[in-house]
Design brief:
The protein has 647 residues and is of the alpha/beta class. The protein has 15 helices and 27 strands. It has 3 domains: 201 residues, Aldehyde oxidase/xanthine dehydrogenase, molybdopterin binding domain (Aldehyde Oxidoreductase, domain 4); 121 residues, Aldehyde Oxidoreductase, domain 4; 251 residues, Aldehyde Oxidoreductase, domain 4.
C-alpha cells in the first residue's frame, strides 16, 4: 500500500486502467478523475491499472487520523485487491465527494464523519468493480460470473485465475450493474490492523505538505493578520486585513517584515470582554427552579486554542489568468470559494485538532501572486498563527439536580453559556437552557467541539452526585443507563481492565463516559496533585465501542492522540487575550516524556461504524478531575485545571 506521490503536489494522477464507482453516486455527475490515453472511466473512486496497481481516490483530507488507510482498506476488501498494490490519490473537485453527513455542502473533513460518510460508497465502489471484473473473466472462461470471486488482485474460479490488470479493458466495456451486493464477510483486509499508508512517507520526510510546495520562480511572503493602522511602511504589501513582505527566501521575508514593524488597530477582545460575554449569555437563561433536596455545581471552560503543530500555509500562482493554489485545508470547497475559484489542490494537514478548518494564508498568497505575476508561498509564523488562531469558544454551566427518596436524581436543571448536547443519563425531567456567548474573539472549530465542555460538566456533576449521596460512582452511573447497553458496557470494561477500586478514600481513580458520533467511550484515569501543585496523570485505561471496526490499530491511535491532546488542553496555563489576540497561555504539544501509560480496549461490535475524532478528547478532563477529587478531596470545576485555585 502506498501513496501515489506524483499526485500529492498536483492533486490528481493518471495511469492506465479501469475507474469504478458508478453505482455509488447519482449518474448525472460526470466522473472527474484524471485519466490518460487508453483509460476507461466508470465512476469516481477507483482505478485499476494495466500494471495491476489499484488507485483509490479519497475525498477526505488526511489530518493524521488515518483516513487514507481506512477508506482504501474498505474498498480494497470488497474488491479483493492486493494491498501491496493499492495506492491513494486525493479526490478531485466534484459534487459527488460532498460530505453528506455534514449536509452535503462541500468536501469537509471534520466532526468524526469521514468513515460514516464514505464507508458505504467505498464498499459499493469495490463491489461494483469486483462484479465487473468477475464478469469479464467469466466470459473468457465460459463460466457463470456468479461462480467467480476475487482475492489478492486476481479473479478466481476453480483453480483458474486472471489478474485484474489483464481484465481491466474488457471489464470497462460492460455496463455497470445496477445492484452490487456487498460481501457477507470481510475478504481478508477489513478489520485488520494494516499499517498506515501515510506512515512511511511521513517517517522518511517524503510526504509533501503545503509548506513543501516548490514552483519555478517562486517567492516567499511573511504576513501578519490584522487591520493596519494608517499607512504601511514602504516596501510592504497591504491587503484586506493583512500586511506582508515578499522576498526570494522565507528568512529574508520574515526579516523584512520584522524590520518594518507595521502597526495595527486594536480591538475590544480581551479577558474582561470574554468574561462579560459569557456572563451575559448566562443571564439570558435563568436556572429552572427545582424543589426538595437539591445539589448545585458550577463548571467553566476558558477558550481553548489549538496546539499549533502546523501553521497555516499556502502557495498560489496565476497561469494565463487561471488560478492554481496549494493549501492545507479541511474544507477545500469553502476555501476555494473564499479565494474566488480556480484550481485548488488540498494538501495533507499536519495537525489533527481542526486548525485547518480555516486557512488565512491562502487568500494572501492568491492576491500576492496576482499582483506580482509569479508564484508566492505564504507560511504564517507559528507565534503569529497562534495569536490569530480561531479558538474553541469558552463555556460555563450551572447544573442542579433534585434527588428523590432513594438518592437517585429525579430532575436536572441547567443554565449553560455554550453548546449543550443531549444528556445520556436517566435522571427524570431534564431542563437545560443554553445560549451561545457572543465572545469578542474569533471562535472556530476544535476537535471534540461542544463535547469537550459538556462531557466535563456532565461527568463531573454525576460524580459529585454519587459522592454526595454516598454511592459508588460506577454503580451510580450504571444505574442511570437503562436502555444504554453499549455505554454501560464500555464503562464496566474500562473499570474492570483498570482495576477500579470504588473511587473511595485513598483512591486515585476516576471515571468518565461519553457517547458521540454513533460511538461510545469510557475512561478510567489514575491521577493526583503532584508535589509541584499541578495535576499528575500516570495511567489512562480506555474502552471504546465505535461499531464495526475498519482498522483496530487506527482506532487505538485515534483514541490515544485524542487523550494526549486533551491532557495538553487540561493542563495548559489559562489563555489570556488582548486586542482580540491570544497573548499567552493555551496548550502546547506534549512530549513523550510527559505522556502517561495508555491502554485502549476496542470492543467488537456489529453496529454501523461510528466516528472517533473528538471522542476521547471529551472524557479526559472529567475522568482526571474525578480521580483528583478522590485522591485529594479537591474538586476541579474549571478548565484548564488550576488545582491551587479550586477546592
Amino acid at each position: 500500500m502506498r501513496i501515489d506521490r506524483r499526485t500529492l503536489l498536483v492533486g490528481g494522477g493518471a495511469g492506465l486502467g479501469l475507474v469504478v464507482a458508478w453505482a455509488a453516486w447519482p449518474r448525472r455527475f460526470a466522473p472527474g478523475l484524471p485519466i490518460g490515453k487508453g483509460e476507461q472511466v466508470f465512476g469516481h473512486y477507483l482505478k485499476v491499472g494495466t500494471d495491476g496497481r489499484v488507485t483509490v481516490a479519497v475525498p477526505q483530507v488526511e489530518t493524521g487520523q488515518g483516513i487514507w488507510t481506512a477508506l482504501p482498506q474498505l474498498l480494497a476488501d470488497e474488491l479483493g485487491a492486493d494491498w501491496t498494490k493499492v495506492a491513494v490519490i486525493p479526490a478531485p473537485v466534484g459534487r459527488v465527494y460532498d460530505n453528506q453527513v455534514l449536509g452535503g455542502r462541500g468536501r469537509t473533513t471534520a466532526a468524526a464523519t469521514s468513515v460514516r460518510a464514505f464507508a458505504e460508497p467505498m464498499r459499493q465502489a469495490g463491489a461494483t468493480a469486483r462484479i465487473m471484473l468477475c464478469a469479464a473473466a467469466a466470459k473468457q472462461w465460459g463460466v457463470a460470473a456468479g461462480e467467480c470471486d476475487t482475492a489478492g488482485g486476481f479473479v478466481l474460479h476453480e483453480g483458474k485465475r486472471l489478474p485484474f490488470a489483464a481484465l481491466a479493458e474488457a471489464a470497462a466495456q460492460a455496463a455497470a450493474p445496477e445492484d452490487a451486493p456487498l460481501r457477507n464477510r470481510p475478504a481478508g483486509l477489513a478489520a485488520q490492523p494494516l499499517p498506515r499508508v501515510d506512515g512511511p512517507p511521513k517517517s522518511d520526510g517524503s510526504m509533501r505538505f503545503a509548506a513543501d510546495v516548490r514552483l519555478p520562480g517562486q517567492v516567499y511572503a511573511a504576513a501578519l493578520i490584522g487591520r493596519p493602522a494608517g499607512e504601511v511602511p514602504k516596501g510592504l504589501h497591504r491587503g484586506e486585513g493583512w500586511v506582508a513582505a515578499v522576498a526570494d527566501t522565507s528568512w529574508a521575508a520574515r526579516r523584512a517584515l520584522a524590520a518594518a514593524a507595521p502597526a495595527f488597530q486594536g480591538s475590544r477582545g480581551d479577558d474582561d470582554g470574554i468574561t462579560q460575554a459569557v456572563e451575559l449569555a448566562l443571564a439570558g437563561n435563568e436556572l429552572p427552579s427545582l424543589t426538595g433536596r437539591t445539589v448545585t455545581a458550577d463548571y467553566a471552560m476558558a477558550p481553548v486554542p489549538h496546539l499549533g503543530l502546523e501553521p497555516p500555509a499556502a502557495t498560489a500562482r496565476w497561469v494565463n489568468g487561471q488560478l492554481e493554489a496549494w493549501a492545507s485545508t479541511q474544507q477545500p470547497d469553502a476555501l476555494l470559494a473564499a479565494i474566488g475559484g480556480g484550481q485548488l489542490y488540498p494538501m495533507p494537514v499536519g495537525s489533527p485538532d481542526g486548525v485547518a478548518m480555516s486557512n488565512p494564508a491562502a487568500p494572501i498568497a492568491v492576491e500576492l501572486a496576482r499582483r506580482l505575476g509569479r508564484p508566492v508561498q505564504v507560511v504564517l509564523s507559528p507565534a503569529h498563527a497562534r495569536a490569530v488562531d480561531p479558538v474553541l469558544a469558552p463555556a460555563r454551566a450551572r447544573l442542579r439536580a433534585q434527588l428523590g427518596p432513594d438518592n437517585r436524581p429525579i430532575a436536572l436543571a441547567g443554565q449553560v453559556a455554550g453548546l449543550w448536547p443531549s444528556f445520556p443519563y436517566a435522571v427524570g425531567r431534564v431542563d437545560v437552557r443554553a445560549a451561545q456567548p457572543a465572545v469578542p474573539i474569533t471562535a472556530g472549530y476544535l476537535r471534540g467541539q461542544d463535547g469537550l465542555f459538556a462531557a466535563f460538566a456532565r461527568e463531573s456533576f454525576i460524580d459529585e452526585l454519587a459522592r454526595q449521596v454516598g454511592s459508588e460512582p460506577l454503580a451510580f452511573r450504571i444505574s442511570l443507563l437503562p436502555g444504554k447497553p453499549r455505554l454501560a458496557r464500555v464503562l464496566s470494561t474500562a473499570a474492570a481492565i483498570g482495576g477500579w477500586d470504588g473511587g473511595g478514600s485513598g483512591s486515585s481513580l476516576g471515571l468518565a463516559a461519553h457517547s458521540a458520533y454513533g460511538s461510545h467511550i469510557a475512561l478510567l484515569a489514575s491521577a493526583t496533585i503532584g508535589g509541584d501543585g499541578q495535576v499528575a496523570v500516570d495511567r489512562l485505561v480506555c474502552a471504546v465501542d465505535c461499531g464495526r471496526v475498519v482498522n483496530p490499530q487506527l482506532v487505538r491511535q485515534q483514541v490515544e492522540s485524542g487523550l494526549i491532546a486533551a491532557l495538553a488542553y487540561a493542563r495548559a496555563p489559562a489563555p489570556s487575550f488582548r486586542d482580540g489576540l491570544l497573548r499567552s497561555g493555551g496548550g502546547v504539544a506534549p512530549t513523550l516524556a510527559g505522556t502517561p501509560r495508555i491502554e485502549v480496549e476496542v470492543i467488537p461490535s456489529a453496529a454501523e461504524p461510528g466516528g472517533l475524532s473528538g471522542l476521547s478528547t471529551a472524557v479526559l478532563a472529567p475522568a482526571v478531575g474525578n480521580a483528583v477529587a478522590a485522591a485529594s478531596g479537591r474538586r476541579l470545576r474549571a478548565l484548564p485545571f488550576d488545582p491551587m485555585s479550586e477546592a
